[in-house]
Specification:
The complex is a heterodimer of chains A (about 450) and B (about 500). The two termini of chain A are about 40 Å apart. Chain A is about 30% helix and about 20% strand. Chain A is α/β, with parallel strands linked by helices. Chain A is built from 13 helices and 18 strands. In chain A, strands 1, 2, 3, 4, 5, 16, 17 and 18 form an 8-stranded mixed sheet that branches. Chain A has an 8-stranded mixed sheet with strand order 6-7-10-11-12-13-14-15. In chain A, β10 and β11 form a beta hairpin. Chain B has about 500 residues and is α/β, with parallel strands linked by helices. In chain B, β12, α9 and β13 form a beta-alpha-beta unit. In chain B, α5 packs parallel to α7 and α9 packs across α10. Chain B starts with a helix and ends in a 24-residue tail after the last strand. Classes of the chains: A alpha/beta (about 450), B alpha/beta (about 500). Chains A and B meet through α10 and α13 of A and α4 and α10 of B.
Chain lengths: ~450, ~500
């Protein structure tokens, strides 16, 4: 299905490129924050055939194009939300709507792409916050119908993700989705990372201690290497015993071959060092996530060219592995030369928009440009979609947002969101409820509105 | 704005405030008959031991709060949001001896001895009040030996007090203060129908919780609607397991409390007449509920759904109760006029909703729609991260209002995190606005507090500098963080 969708998009592009201007849209009088090539204080951006076809201060809208006057407002590339459960979880505490945790039958082989639901009501919520792409990553364990009673409301709290830990080291394989309305297949890239929990959570999954986690992880990678070289023997039952079944080893083969990164969830500085050492030893590509104490080893992270996905609000010693959490973690990593991506709510129903987390990082030391990059081009590069997304450049997908003001500010909202050059409906359930209940009734109950 | 606040104060709240004052001085109050008084008849040979009489000492764990040392301060040149509806440009705010002594424009006279703070380009607001916090009862780090917020052994634990769980060394208190939070309502969790008593704290570093207790603040009672209590007990095969089981549990408890209060009233009436009487058996759970019936303790009710809030309002009418606030009231906008009419505040988030069935209909415009209907809006946290940016959460709610075509000025929206929570906590006579005579709980912001780029620069509690972003001497660290990685420093 993915192949067909891609082929269709490609043919649409060719068709439009051949001369039709019927689907062309030009946003004029816009402040264009390109991310990769600075800011054009007043310019025009033209979209056609699903792509950005022109942008600049002196670009004229093509004949027949729909012209949208930005009246000086800001246009950015669509935002990329790292580390979410968008499209694979609907109501966080209703277990049967959760497809983001692998359970106990599959570990590395767990593949979130098969659970992606293009009808999720949260897609519209995400688009309303200017998000056009989301990284859908799995959790280790099994989703449960309940969380801690003390702060069920707090999905940010420790243990509040409604997932029960099971003895499975790997969470599974992540995917990138593009939030295009009406598109049956949202998956833009599948199996683009294998997720593993190290640190406290990983230790728990491995039986209690970090020493077990790393031994199991190294053993799994060794098994994957051996398996890759002995598939025929394996099929004959002639290989040594592996710690994981073939469907898990298959997922790890591209990891040990350096084609797919290992996304490592890790917090403590010492654990980050161990993870970096493992990446060196095993010659695997690595991305680290959470990384509250990363600032303590920022130079080593930068030298290893390992990107970091972090939440800039994280400043509490929530656990014994994040005692040194600080609000300037992002700024210190950036300063050291590391590539960072900013994340926000994993669940779009416990919403803290990613744009505001970028703003928070600015309050604690990032420049505004660095913060915007951390929710656009940086995640695009980290997740392997930079050829199509993450900046305003000719030839990239026309996934752009027109904002009511500064996109990193509290009171700003996305006025128009284009994906593939098509203006997306901003009509979430929330929006519809608001409209229903802000009208005066005429004797009939709200259900008639 | 004063009119708005006054209109919120229904008759029951007025009586609550009176009762709260009575509570502080209860031992001397003439209306309270204590067993120490000489019996009128020799027949009453053995006086009731004090511990057996709930009215002998209504404040057995009294506040020992003392303000930090302070000197007179004049904050000059800032944009001032008073939370009484005013926004003053180039304003002056004078603090002395723990109180606000003057708030006004540039012409306001500044006492000669006051230290002048040049606040041009900056903003000043009242200290932020978080009406929903679990700091200290669910502290950081969140290890299993410190999960002290839910006494989930009985659906009615009205007799437990959150202050007896608070760990004052919770490092999160320091983060909240750096976010401008000067007062917190610490609540038990929502696993029970009646979670227990809440406690109102001044956010000062302290060795004991009594050193943080807000002097004279009334107690609160945590009640919970909906999914949490029925799930907690239903899973154990115990009542309640359904929503109707929840309501049965509330009604049963209020019946028992009404009967308990009646017995004690009858007993006190007989003693007052000098007659011989057997005292009812004291019950700590019913003490709290009777305190609510007497208007001395305020109901803080976790309740998401509009229909369940309406049921709780009926319950309140049935037993002569008043609910101070519905917390997490994500559907409050559906019954905004009812909440306005009942003088019940809605304590809500900016945009959260949908994380469980009873939260499905949360919308960003909740606050704006409530404000438009004349209801009392509170933006609360229930979260150790969100609490550090309640000003931004209020701004998010304003932004959602703008998107819905409702423009709420900053001068009004600031009340969502200051004056309105003060009202719901029964401490609006003391804090929540910048008005002469009130406690000098004040935040100096680096800029517009509704901006994502703004941070709190200085936080004053009772006129004393309790936090300074640029001066390490005023960045207190909890005992727990000493000698730990990071050493408790959390910002540049």
């Amino acid at each position: 299905m993915r192949f067909i969708a891609t082929a269709f998009a490609a043919s649409a592009f060719l068709f439009c490129d051949a001369g039709s201007a019927t689907d062309a849209v030009a946003i004029v009088n816009a402040k264009l924050e390109t991310v990769t090539h600075g800011t054009i204080s007043s310019g025009t951006l033209v979209m056609q055939g699903g792509k950005i076809v022109a942008l600049g201060a002196n670009v004229r809208p093509p004949a027949g194009a729909r012209v949208l006057d930005a009246a000086g407002r800001t246009v950015t590339p669509g935002l990329i939300a790292s580390s979410t459960n968008l499209t694979v979880a609907e109501v966080n505490l209703v277990a049967e709507t959760r497809d983001d945790a692998g359970g106990d039958r599959v570990s590395a082989g767990f593949d979130v792409q098969y659970g992606v639901n293009p009808e999720s009501t949260l897609l519209a919520v995400a688009r309303e916050t200017g998000v056009t792409h989301a990284i859908v990553s799995p959790l280790v364990g099994r989703a449960e119908a309940f969380a801690d009673e003390h702060d069920d409301e707090s999905m940010q709290g420790g243990g509040g993700d409604g997932v029960t830990a099971l003895p499975s080291l790997f969470a599974g394989q992540a995917a990138v989705v593009r939030l295009m309305d009406g598109e049956p297949d949202l998956v833009m890239r599948a199996r683009m990372a294998v997720v593993v929990d190290l640190g406290q959570s990983g230790a728990q999954h491995a039986g209690g201690s970090r020493g077990a986690t790393f031994v199991l992880l190294q053993s799994a990678l060794a098994d994957a290497r051996h398996y890759a070289a002995h598939r025929a023997d394996y099929d004959r039952g002639a290989t040594r015993t592996y710690g994981l079944p073939a469907f898990d080893l298959e997922a790890l083969v591209p990891v040990v071959e350096g084609r797919t990164p290992l996304l490592v969830r890790v917090s403590r500085a010492a654990d980050i060092r161990q993870a970096l050492a493992l990446a060196r030893r095993e010659h695997v590509r690595m991305i680290i996530e959470d990384a509250q104490e990363a600032w303590m080893v920022a130079d080593e992270i930068a030298a290893a060219r390992v990107p970091v996905v972090l939440d800039p609000q994280d400043d509490l010693p929530r656990s014994f592995e994040s005692l040194a959490a600080r609000l300037d973690n992002a700024a210190r990593l950036q300063q050291a030369g590391a590539t960072i991506a900013i994340k926000a709510s994993r669940n779009f129903n416990s919403l803290r928009p990613i744009r505001l987390n970028a703003g928070t990082a600015v309050a604690y030391g990032l420049t505004r440009a660095q913060a915007l990059a951390a929710i656009t081009i940086n995640p695009a590069r980290i997740w392997g979609i930079a050829a199509r997304a993450g900046s305003l450049e000719v030839g990239k997908d026309a996934d752009v947002v027109l904002w009511s003001g500064d996109p990193l500010e509290t009171m700003t909202f996305a006025q128009s969101v284009f994906i593939g050059g098509v203006e997306q409906p901003l009509n979430s359930r929330r929006q519809q409820l608001q409209e229903r209940y802000s009208q005066p009734g005429a004797g009939y109950p709200p259900a008639y509105r | 704005m004063r009119g708005y606040m006054a209109s919120l104060r229904g008759p029951s709240i007025a009586s609550v405030t009176g009762a709260a004052l009575l509570l502080v001085g209860c031992v001397d109050a003439p209306a309270v008959k204590t067993p120490e008084q000489p019996p009128a008849k020799p027949a009453e040979a053995v006086p009731l031991p004090r511990a057996l009489d709930p009215y002998s000492n209504l404040d057995p764990y009294p506040s020992t709060y003392r303000p930090l040392p302070s000197q007179p301060v004049a904050i000059v040149g800032a944009t001032v949001l008073t939370a009484t509806g005013q926004q003053i440009e180039n304003g002056v705010v004078v603090l002395a001896e723990g109180r606000i002594v003057a708030v006004g424009d540039a012409a306001t006279s500044i006492p000669a001895q006051a230290q002048r703070i040049d606040a041009r380009g900056k903003w000043v607001t009242p200290g932020i009040i978080d009406a929903h916090s679990h700091l200290g009862v669910y502290p950081s780090p969140g290890v299993s030996s410190r999960q002290d917020g839910n006494e989930m052994t009985n659906p009615n634990t009205a007799g437990v007090w959150a202050e007896h769980s608070v760990w004052p060394q919770d490092p999160a208190f320091q983060r909240a203060r750096a976010g401008g939070v000067t007062t917190l309502l610490i609540l038990p969790g929502s696993g029970n129908l009646f979670g227990g008593r809440s406690v109102t704290l001044k956010n000062v570093p302290a060795v004991t919780v009594r050193d943080m207790k807000f002097p004279g603040a009334p107690y609160g009672l945590k009640m919970a609607c909906g999914e949490n209590p029925k799930r907690s007990y239903g899973m154990k095969g115990q009542a309640p397991s359904t929503a109707m089981g929840n309501v049965f549990g509330y009604r049963k408890a209020w019946l028992d409390a009404t009967e308990y209060a009646r017995k004690w009233a009858a007993y006190r009436a007989r003693v007052a007449k000098g007659e011989q009487a057997d005292a009812p058996a004291r019950d700590l759970t019913l003490d709290t509920l009777a305190g609510v019936l007497a208007g001395e303790i305020l109901i803080q009710n976790h309740c998401y759904r509009a229909d369940e809030m309406a049921t709780m309002i009926d319950l309140a009418h049935e037993f002569g109760l008043h609910i101070a606030a519905f917390h997490h009231a994500v559907e409050a906008y559906k019954i905004a006029p009812l909440l306005a009419q009942e003088h019940i505040c809605a304590a809500i988030w900016g945009e959260r909703g949908g994380m469980k069935m009873e939260a499905m209909d949360g919308i960003g415009a909740n606050a704006a729609l409530l404000q438009r209907a004349g209801s009392c809006v509170i933006i609360h946290s229930d979260d150790t991260i969100l609490m550090q940016r309640l000003n931004q959460e209020a701004a998010i709610a304003v932004g959602a209002g703008l998107r819905a075509g409702i423009d709420i000025p900053r001068a009004q929206a600031i009340a969502w995190i200051t004056a309105n929570p003060a009202h719901a906590l029964g401490i609006d006579g003391q804090v929540g606005t910048l008005e002469p005579g009130k406690m000098a709980d004040v935040v100096l912001w680096s800029g517009d507090p509704f901006s994502v780029y703004t941070v709190a620069e200085q936080v004053f509690i009772d006129g004393a500098l309790a936090y300074d972003r640029h001066d390490a001497r005023f960045q207190p660290r909890s005992d727990f963080e000493l000698g730990q990685p990071g050493a408790g420093a959390f910002h540049p």
